[in-house]
């Protein structure tokens, strides 16, 4: 097992896979991102693993069920946990680390008010050069490869999530390893509140118009529909047959229909 040590402002950060508690991680481990709310999980970085939590029992159960289904469906691009572990603070999902931890990074100290007792904690967030949010890539000129190489897989994966009623989905759920030109889909633990039946039905939150998402990806809808329809051949999916059928219908409908 490799142990890396990153020094920043005389602070020593340990990057290995021996995660034992969130409390200790605050002191000497890097985090993958800052939280955007009290109900969000922490993302603690290891060398080859990523630890996300703590998860309450309900969220743990939801993720576990969805992971088993996506494994059976062979959902593309989605990063699935290799296991769950329990530490003092609760359950953590353990994911493979798809980033290059030896790539160029910078460290930001983030101060956050904790939910209980109003206490503040600081933790170190790694900003990595090799792993970026897809929405940041779409702002640039070199992004056609995302649709050319992964267009069908992206639509299939997001449609699988829609069938499973995964909520809070958007472009922000996709990250890119730009040195390898690889795409990954993350974060599928929320619940979908309401369905839409438009050309981007699989997104809970529509992307900004300036990204021209639909115009760039609709050419892949027909092939994606054919692949999603294969789920209807498995009787064990019968409980979600209506959602599968609806998704396939929408994909065929909007594969050629101009919108706007």
The CA-CA distance between the termini, in Å, is 54 Å
Mean pLDDT reading: 88
Low-confidence stretches: 1-10
Helix content: 25-40%
Largest sheet: 4 strands, antiparallel
Q: What is the count of β-strands? A: 14
Number of helices, counting only DSSP H or I runs of 4 residues or more: 7
* Beta-strand share of residues: 25-35%
- Structural class estimated from helices and strands: alpha+beta
Instruction: Provide the succession of SSEs.
Output: EEHEEEHEEEEEHHEEEEHHH
Provide the spatial order of strands within the biggest beta sheet: 4-5-7-6
Question: Given the C-alpha coordinates, what overall shape results?
Answer: globular
> How many domains make up the 3D coordinates?
2
Please tell me how large the radius of gyration is: 19 Å
Describe, in plain words, how this protein is organized in 3D.
By secondary structure, the chain is of the alpha+beta class. The chain folds into 2 domains: 4-129, no CATH class; 133-253. It is built from 7 helices and 14 strands. It has helices at residues 22-28, 57-73, 134-138, 144-163, 213-217, 221-229, 241-253, and strands at residues 4-8, 11-15, 30-31, 42-45, 49-55, 83-87, 90-96, 105-113, 120-128, 131-133, 166-167, 174-177, 182-185, 190-191. It has a 4-stranded antiparallel sheet with strand order 4-5-7-6. The protein has a 3-stranded mixed sheet with strand order 3-9-8. Helix 4 packs parallel to helix 6 and helix 6 packs antiparallel against helix 7. The longest helix is centred in the middle third of the chain and has 20 residues, at 144-163.
């Amino acid at each position: 097992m490799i142990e890396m040590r990153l020094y920043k402002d005389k602070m020593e950060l340990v990057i290995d896979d021996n995660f034992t508690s969130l409390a200790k991680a605050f002191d000497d481990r890097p985090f993958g991102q800052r939280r955007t709310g009290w109900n969000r999980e922490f993302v603690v970085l290891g060398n080859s693993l990523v630890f996300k939590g703590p998860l309450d029992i309900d969220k743990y159960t939801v993720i576990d069920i969805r992971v088993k289904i996506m494994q059976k469906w062979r959902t593309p691009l989605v990063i699935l946990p290799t296991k769950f572990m329990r530490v003092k603070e609760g359950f953590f999902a353990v994911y493979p680390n798809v980033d290059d931890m030896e790539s160029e990074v910078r460290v930001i100290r983030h101060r956050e008010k904790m939910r209980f007792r109003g206490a503040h904690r600081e933790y170190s967030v790694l900003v990595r050069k090799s792993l970026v949010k897809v929405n940041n890539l779409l702002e640039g000129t070199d992004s056609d490869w995302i649709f050319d190489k992964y267009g069908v897989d992206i639509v299939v994966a997001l449609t699988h999530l829609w069938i499973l009623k995964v909520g809070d989905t958007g472009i922000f759920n996709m990250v890119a390893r730009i040195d390898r030109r690889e795409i990954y889909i993350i974060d599928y633990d929320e619940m979908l509140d309401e369905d839409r039946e438009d050309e981007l039905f699989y997104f809970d939150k529509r992307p900004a118009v300036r990204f021209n998402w639909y115009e760039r990806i609709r050419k892949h809808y027909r092939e994606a529909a054919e692949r999603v329809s294969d789920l209807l051949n498995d009787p064990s999916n019968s409980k979600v047959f209506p959602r599968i059928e609806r998704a396939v219908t929408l994909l065929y409908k909007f594969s050629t229909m101009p919108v706007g």
